[in-house]
Amino acid sequence: MTTPTNTASEFHTSDVSHVRPEPETASVIIFGASGDLTARKLLPALFDLWNDGYLSDQAPIIGVARREKTDESFRAEIYEAVKSGVRDGVVSPEQWNRFAQRLYYRQLDIADAGHYPEFKQQLEALEDQNATGRNRIVYMATSPDLFLPAIEHLGFASMIPGRDASRWLRVVFEKPFGHDLQSAQELSGNLRRLLREDQIYRIDHYLGKETVQNILLFRFGNSIFEPLLNRNHVDHVQITVSESQGLERGRGGYYDSSGAMRDVLQNHVLQLLCLIAMEPPALFHAGDLHDEKLKVLKALSGGNKGDATKWVVSGQYSAGVVDGKPAASYLSEERIPPDSRTETYVAMKVQVDNWRWAGVPFYLRTGKRLPSRVSEIAIQFKLPPLNLFNTVECDGDMCALVGAQPNQLVFRIQPSESIKLSFSTKRPGMQYQIHPVTMDFNYKTFTQPLPEAYERLLLDVLRGDSTLFMRSDELEAAWQFVTPVLDFWKREKTIPEPYRCGTWGPRTADELLHNDGRNWRSPAQ
């Protein structure tokens, strides 16, 4: 059963489409512009922002890297990436020529402080030419070991404005932001010597996805659902972030030093948990939202106290089949040591020890080389106290009485963003028989294409809105939760349990739920 009407679509097309946004003007400086992230994500997102009127014609975009390039060669190099990466998949020659006029490249050894005074002069000349007012975004699309040196060198060159300056600087950092609690605290502490918290934007692209943002509006904008999200009505919550891919684009070296816990669970998965579990904020302001998410992270505990093996499962994929194609084992991937103990899969049972969620288990899982690429949050409600109704269900010659199925509320984050609510109704006929139905809101009902996550987040940085970015105390609280597990694995020399490519993970991950009388939900449902 599908309920969406065309009201929202009509509203967008008839009432808003003619309204042009106020364009934002600032210099966008991308450190590490020769990398994959710049070509695949950042510049297509900036093109879409400019094409939609959110980015001013006076906003220069400056790629910075160590390789020698001209403006013309950089533009030609980026052209193909932008054409394939923009939202509509179309870039006309006229559009590209106009956009390319604000695209520049400057050679800089990011690790060498002596190169920054000349870079500052080059940058100011471009800004004077474009009349930006010298407001700047610096996007650190570099390896994490360059984060601190780059900011120190910007400070050395007097390129970090003070609190009372008429111009502003905002710095965006890609993950990983530290590799454990101590390193995250050290990095945050060192950056705070040079930057204020309101100048630091730790990006998590998952938080820019449309359905993730809709979680907050769904919860706090509808009075009929929010009262149900507590220990009285919810049986358990499952959060799945799965990938079907392995280590494409030569990511083996990075991934083997990271693993699924650091790469996905510590940031993406825990942030999704926070949005589902947090209390309503007093105001819909960045600070209030961060405060409520921090409370959730501080209340997190393992599903069973003590031994991590009782509530955490690590796995590593072996050879198998994904999407009908043979897939090699993790240990056979490029740049992976033959004796690697890095986990490509993590599942855990956790609890939020507060008044709202006491006793409700949250089951989290993420992994590579699983059957499909899907991210979702599934909230399963408790069954009615009495089973008054049932129906006959048959599978071939086998038939059985089936009672009411648990209601589920599912936020599908990717692919095909949607929100689904399942419930039971009476099957047509003369008897009281149960028939399960689903109310389904799908973003495909809107005529306008969804903005990409990086597009949304870059616009928020331009506007100075940190709502969808991690604050330093949030980051440290997340690391404080996962670091003891990482230390346990290292201390015990834990070997991840093998699971075949194309399956939903190791056997012990299923047992994690079976021991509680539950099962993992199939994301295809």
Keywords for this entry:
525 residues, alpha/beta, disordered N terminus, six-stranded parallel sheet, 14 helices, 20 strands, globular, ten-stranded mixed sheet, single chain
Describe the structure.
The structure is a single chain. The protein is α/β, with parallel strands linked by helices and 525 residues long. Helix content is 33%, strand content 22%. Helix 2 (36-51) packs across helix 12 (453-463), helix 10 crosses helix 13 and helix 11 (286-299) runs parallel beside helix 13. Mean pLDDT is 88; it is low at 1-18.
Q: What is the count of β-strands?
A: 20
Strand content: 15-25%
* 3D shape: globular
How many alpha or pi helices? 14
How many strands, which pairing sense, and closed or not: the largest β-sheet?
A: 10 strands, mixed
Mean pLDDT figure: 88
Please state the structural category.
alpha/beta
- Using only C-alpha atoms, the radius of gyration works out to 25 Å
Would you identify the regions where 5 or more consecutive residues have pLDDT less than 50? 1-18
Summarize the structure.
The chain contains 14 helices and 20 strands. The protein has helices spanning 7-16, 36-51, 71-85, 93-100, 116-130, 147-156, 181-192, 210-220, 252-256, 259-277, 286-299, 453-463, 472-492, 507-514; strands at residues 27-31, 61-65, 103-107, 136-140, 169-173, 200-202, 234-242, 300-302, 312-318, 320-322, 325-327, 345-352, 361-367, 374-381, 390-395, 398-403, 408-414, 418-426, 434-442, 497-500.
